[in-house]
Design a protein that fits this description.
By secondary structure, the chain is of the alpha/beta class. Helix content is 41%, strand content 14%. The longest helix has 18 residues, at 176-193. The structure holds 2-phosphoglycolic acid (PGA). 2-phosphoglycolic acid (PGA) binds at residues 5, 163, 168-169, 205-208, 226-230.
Length: 245
């Protein structure tokens, strides 16, 4: 899977031609070997779902509330995302964990809400620079994987994204060896939690771009990418998609 996270970027006028271009390029590959996903801001969901309809490009949300409905001003439920045509929802992105104080328990509740609504949850995990330098990476990842994954997670309803916080938006990436170590560790953790763990897609995210995608996607246990900045323009995103399509 190659997933694009547009974060808080895009207006109808600027996003429309980018998604149209992506849909057009995807159309040249009638039988893609990977899922292609764009997670636009919620304001664009309905519009992007309409534009992507009938194509290989799927649409997802970037966050959801744990509850189905209620007095939660400004929040959006997983059911609302589903109603707008989303098929996936990212939960526990490090920007949500940091900016909104989302704990593993909160992330887990959101992931469970996504499953309840019939969405596929993309659960993000990743260490900070301080944690990496303190040699805590694998402990942090274990804690996040064990405590943020939804109950009832399977390979068909849950995707993991390993995103080292220090690699997001910085242009820095871990070495392929570092990525391999963490992904193998995640795979091992999944093995102790669920039956079909070998089939769970574990994405890498953090400064993925056209020039490094092939190397990162070739790493063992890497089943795709979660892409921020380089997903905003179809011309930048397409070379990443091309590594797997
Ligand atoms: P980036 O963001 O590709 O801009 O580093 C990745 C992410 O936050 O998912």
């Amino acid at each position: 899977m190659i997933a694009g996270n547009w974060k808080m970027n895009g207006l109808v006028g600027s996003a429309t031609p980018e998604l149209q271009e992506l849909v057009k390029r995807a159309g040249d590959h009638p039988d893609p070997k990977c899922d292609i996903l764009i997670c636009p801001p919620a304001t664009l969901l309905y519009e992007m779902v309409s534009l992507a309809e009938g194509s290989a490009v799927k649409i997802g949300g970037q966050n959801c509330h744990a509850n189905e409905s209620g007095a939660h001003t400004g929040d959006i439920s997983a059911e609302m995302l589903k109603d707008a045509g989303a098929e996936y929802c990212i939960v526990g992105h490090s920007e949500r964990r940091a900016d909104h104080g989302e704990s593993n328990a909160v992330v887990k509740a959101k992931a469970e809400a996504a499953l309840r609504a019939g969405l596929i949850a993309i659960v993000c995990v990743g260490e900070t620079l301080v944690e990496r330098e303190g040699d805590k990476t694998l402990d942090v990842i274990s804690d996040q994987v064990r405590n943020s994954l939804p109950g009832g997670a399977t390979a068909s309803n849950t995707v993991i994204a390993y995103e080292p916080v220090w690699a997001i938006g910085t242009g820095k990436t871990p070495t392929p060896e570092n990525v391999a170590d963490v992904h193998a560790h995640i795979r091992k953790e999944l093995g102790s939690m669920m039956g079909d763990s070998d089939s769970v897609r574990v994405l890498y995210g953090g400064s993925v771009k056209g020039s490094n995608a092939a190397e990162l996607m070739a790493v063992e246990n890497v089943d795709g990418a979660l892409v921020g900045g380089a997903s905003l323009k179809a011309v930048d995103f397409w070379p990443i998609v091309s590594t797997c399509i």
